[in-house]
Amino acid sequence: MPVDILVGTQWGDEGKGKLIDVLTRDVDVVVRFQGGNNAGHTVEIGDERYVLHLVPSGVFRPEVKCVIGNGVVADPVALQEELEGLEKRGIDTGNVFISNRTQLIFAYHRTMDRINESGTGVKIGTTGRGIGPAYADKMRRTGIRAIDLTSPERLAAGFRAEAEKYNQIFKRCGAPELDVEAELAKVLAAAAKLAPRVRDTVYIVNAAVKAGKQVLFEGAQGALLDIDHGTYPFVTSSNTTSGGACTGGGVPPQSVRDVWGVIKAYTTRVGEGPFPTELFDDCGENLRQRGREFGATTGRPRRCGWFDAVASHYACMVNGVNKLAVTKLDVLDDLEKIAICVGYEIDGRVTKEFPASLAELESAKPVLEYLPGWQCDTSSARCWKDLPEAARNYLKHMAELVDSTVAIVSVGPRRDQTFSVQA
Ligand code: GDP
Ligand code: IMO
Ligand code: MG
């Protein structure tokens, strides 16, 4: 069963892009299965730093087939720009394919996203990429799919009809209306370039599985941003957890072997919403600076806090994570002691369960356990034994608390700053 899934176990930005790049050394096909260009996946190779938004992070290995799956929402103009940006930097994108079932994002979705965020309703702190409105259209059954990129007439007709409908809404909201024909021209230009990449990727992926090839699913965002399991409504609009890989890529559950959970050695969050272990002091600022915690997509400073074992235990349980990839251990190098949240105190009662109630999450006081720091450099560690004992203990404790096993440790952004841990 050669399908593995890699997901984020926190609020995103755990280092998934880096891990996908490392793991695709031994992979034939990599599939993005949800989300859109709200994602920002960083890959550092030598002195070069790349941030991917829609293109799967296997793209740096020309022999790897990269699939944008049916569960993704893709902005054709942004995707074409991203592909051209990579090509300009000498990266061959000939192996990038788009599912004909992928839903498309257009300018009116982005405008709608802005309107939703600026109104009197709940402000989510979205990335402004039109993700929520595009998924809403998918569920409303009014979305336009990538199959229409291959038919300019059908695409133009669908786009005009939807754009006019949205313009009525914008007029009512007092928002600027879209110049339909100018936008359509941009969309058609991108469509003409993208059309040769549109395939029935469900057959491609299933044929690879049948042939015993290695397929890796690349999650975006993280479990706590999952539409069902995250801190609703402060979430994204897709199933970011491993179950989403089957629907978002079109593979059956019994083809899945391992679920990799990428887990940062501390916690970060971008946007609004509850974050029980958030630090507002120098310690949080230190994590932000040392970890370079600024959004890869929007540049926003990321909120930083201690590792939250309650939240990540829930995430690992729901995802079925059997292999942990712990990232950014090096960011904790200078700390004298390190806290881990092992429970929440809510209304005077301590729980180890992650509550569904927003009010409970907002009032949760973290129950912290302190572990000694190691106060030495780990960024040059290349195996488990290279790590100081206190760092090994910290990792073992993290794994115990989330009921999983550490399989990879990452101690820096580069490919070589990664090593496997034998069970
Ligand atoms: P993703 O969205 O999960 O792919 O993560 P991002 O790319 O948004 O954010 C992770 C950031 O941490 C990127 O800047 C990576 O280059 C960097 N990074 C990844 N792993 C490590 C690590 O082990 N140590 C350090 N210091 N940085 C890392
Ligand atoms: P990667 O894949 C971190 C957050 C936004 C906001 C919420 C909803 O790089 O880990 P959306 O634009 O999706 O409607 O915003 O989700 N968010 C992310 N936070 N990493 C991401 O992706 C994110 N993608 C969306 O900040 O709080
Ligand atoms: Mg990111």
Key attributes of the depicted protein:
binds magnesium ion, 423 residues, binds guanosine-5'-diphosphate, single chain, globular, binds 6-O-phosphoryl inosine monophosphate, Adenylosuccinate Synthetase, Chain A, domain 3, 3 domains, four-stranded mixed β-sheet, alpha/beta, Adenylosuccinate Synthetase, subunit A, domain 2
What does this structure look like?
This protein is of the alpha/beta class and 423 residues long. It has three domains: 3-98 and 198-259, Adenylosuccinate Synthetase, Chain A, domain 1, CATH 3.40.440; 103-194, Orthogonal Bundle (Adenylosuccinate Synthetase, subunit A, domain 2); 263-420, Adenylosuccinate Synthetase, subunit A, domain 3 (Adenylosuccinate Synthetase, Chain A, domain 3, Alpha-Beta Complex), CATH 3.90.170.10. 32% of the residues lie in helices and 21% in strands. The protein contains twelve helices and 20 strands. It has helices at 16-23, 76-88, 107-118, 131-140, 152-173, 180-194, 201-210, 243-249, 282-290, 309-319, 358-363, 389-402; strands at 3-8, 29-32, 41-45, 48-52, 65-68, 73-74, 96-99, 103-104, 198-199, 215-218, 256-264, 267-269, 303-305, 307-308, 323-327, 337-346, 349-351, 365-372, 406-410, 418-420. The longest helix is centred in the middle third of the chain and has 22 residues, at 152-173.
